[in-house]
Structure formats: structure tokens, C-alpha cells
Amino acid sequence: MNNFHYHNPTHIVFGKDTIATLADLIPADKKIILIYGGGSIKKNGVYDQVAAALKGRIAVEFAGIEPNPLYETCMDAVKLIKDKKIDFILAVGGGSVIDGSKFIAAAACYNGEPWDILAKGGEVKAALPLGTVLTLPATGTEMNGNSVISRKSSDEKLAFYSPKVYPAFSILDPETTYSLPKNQLRNGIVDAFVHVMEQYATYSVETPLQDRQAEAVVNTLVEISGRVLTQEKDYNASASFVWCTTQALNGLINCGVVQDWATHMIGHELTAFFGLAHAESLAIVLPGLWKHQLAHKQDKLAQLGERVWNIKSGSSKEKAQAAIDATVKFFHSVKMPTTLKDYNISAADIQKVVTRFKERGTVLGEHQNITWKEVEEILTLCL
């Protein structure tokens, strides 16, 4: 097991009717900006619950954070925060709203060009405090310090991490998922599954507890996926779904293990150039990357096959290959496409992605063996 530090400062408030606790979670002297997305919270009752809990305390609202939050939009929010002298951000929505709010929190306190936080690894020395009300379980951003932001002017999608932008609290009410459309539920299931795999399907450094914690998350996702996608008001299935997505990326299962994240880095470029949802890009890249890197990932994929997909016969390589096939079958079972052609993306189109990796000189993967040449080979397998 590798050395690690683990600290997670986010206070989780979990369960039905917990939005009402907001008044106790945000200090009374704070001037609040409420940040949300396209307005679905005004249709599903969440906005009314937030407004009731914070009656008279919300100073200003900022709506319109996109599904892949844009730098340009976030900077509009930063200007509003500075103009109104806001000192607390409340993000109400899914991963995009929360990611956008994290960047806004950092950018509002950054001395210099805020894009440098993303493009040049500029250090975040301070950030406005923020809390979240999660309405779309998927990314796990409600309990970590990660954020991914897109820039329309340059077709880029970049990430940053800072301990300064961990939410002070996150309210997770499973009932907020009841009104979600099937494609968003599907995306959440796949997103969480791939998050786990980025921390699991690498190579062993003898972390049996972390392996089984990771397997527990994906086994649960597989078990409850059908119930979640029926869109019935199944509280227990929704509760497990929400907690799985949070556990998938709150830092616990990656303690002491080897991580990958190449699928994410390639997927971000598919989103930047072609507008795919985050989970859609991951479902395409993961199987192709696994096939390409089979020799390096064989043992862990075989373990995945045995412990998650109940594949008991065959050699280690055969089990690993069967695990890839079983994963694709699972994605299809939740109606998630798994090839580039499903989105009319051609071999010629992928050269945009390949060129970007070539220009940046990026090297990916747990073995740092994926250059632009391997990216091209992987994406060819994804066609």
C-alpha cells in the first residue's frame, strides 16, 4: 500500500427533508449568492425549499450555469460577487453547478488571471466558502476539492484541485432525484462507475480493503440501477444511488492505491470538441482504453470480472476480456451508447483530439505510457 494523507472537511447532511437545515448550516452574518443552472430547481420544488429555509437571507441569485460549466459564465458570476460584496456561495444543482461554483469561489479571491488556475496550475491560496444542495448525483463533487471547467472561446475543458474549495457542507436529499429524466439518471450511474474504475482498474499494490470498498460501490450501482431507472419514487434505491456517487469520488477508495484518470482526460476532449455529456464520453473511452491497455490492467480487470461480474472460468486474460465485455453490456443495460459512431463522430473527427494531445505533449495513465500516439489508437478502438 502506498503512503497517503486523507482529510475530508465536508459536512454531509443526508436524508429527506434536510434542505430545511440550511439556516443552521450557513452563518447568519454571511451575504449569500444562490447559484443554479437552467431552472429545473424551480420546477421540482427544490428552489422553494431553499427559499423557505433561508427566508430573507439570499442577497442575490445567479442562474444559467451550463451542463459543462463555461469559464465565461463563471466570470460573470465572479463580477456579480465582487459588485455585491458576497461572502458565501450556495450551489444548488448537479455536478456542473457545484464545479462552476468551486471555480467561482476560487476566482473571486485570485490575484491574477483566473484562467491560470486551470491552464497553468495557479495556486488557489483562498476561496469564498461554499455549501451545496445536490440535485443530480453523479460526479461526487459535493464531497471533494475537484472542479472541471470549459472555455468556449478555445474549446478547452480543464480541471483543477484545491483543498480550499471543498464544500463546507453538502445536503444530499434522495427525494430530489425523483424528477430527474432517465438520461441524467443513466449518466449518474455510469459516471460513478467509471470514477471507481479510474481508482481500481490499474495494478495492485496490495490494498485488499480499498479494493473491496471500490467493488462494493460498483456492485451496489449494478444492483440498484434498474430500480433507479424506473423513475418510481423508490427512496431506498435513490438513497443508495446518491451515496454511491458520493463515495465514488470523495477520496476514500483511492487511499494508498494507484490511479489512472486517462479515460477522463481523453473524455474531456470529446466533450470540449463535440459536446458530449461527461458520462457519455467516459462510456466510450473506458472500454477502448481497457482493450488497449489490457496487458497492464489484466490482473485487476480479471479481479473485477470475478468479484463484480461473477466470471469464474478461464485464464486471467480471458477473465479480463470478459470483464470488459460485461462492463459494456452493463452500460447498454442502462441505455448508454459506447461508441463514437453512436454520436456520428468519425475517424477524421478524432484527429482534433489527437492533435491537442500532441501539441500539449501530455502523457497519461498509471504507467505514463499513453502519449498522443496511444490516444489515437485508443480512440480508433472506440469507433
Distance between the termini: 37 Å
Topology pattern, helix = H, strand = E: EHEHEHEHHEEEEHHHHHHHHH
CATH topology of the largest domain: Dehydroquinate synthase-like, alpha domain
Fraction of residues in helices?
40-55%
Q: If helices are DSSP runs of H or I spanning 4 or more residues, what is the number of helices?
A: 14
Side by side, the strands of the main sheet go: 1-8-5-4-2-3
Give the integer mean of the pLDDT values.
96
What's the story with the biggest beta sheet?
6 strands, parallel
Strands, count: 8
- What is the molecular shape? globular
Quick tags:
single chain, six-stranded parallel β-sheet, 14 helices, 383 residues, two-stranded antiparallel sheet
Task: Summarize the structure in words.
The structure is a single chain. The protein is of the alpha/beta class. It has two domains: 11-176, Rossmann fold; 182-381, Dehydroquinate synthase-like, alpha domain (Up-down Bundle), CATH 1.20.1090. Helices cover 46% and strands 11% of the residues. It is built from 14 helices and eight strands. The strands form two sheets. A six-stranded parallel β-sheet has the order 1-8-5-4-2-3, with helices on both faces. It has a two-stranded antiparallel ribbon with strand order 6-7. Strand 6 (146-151) and strand 7 form a beta hairpin.
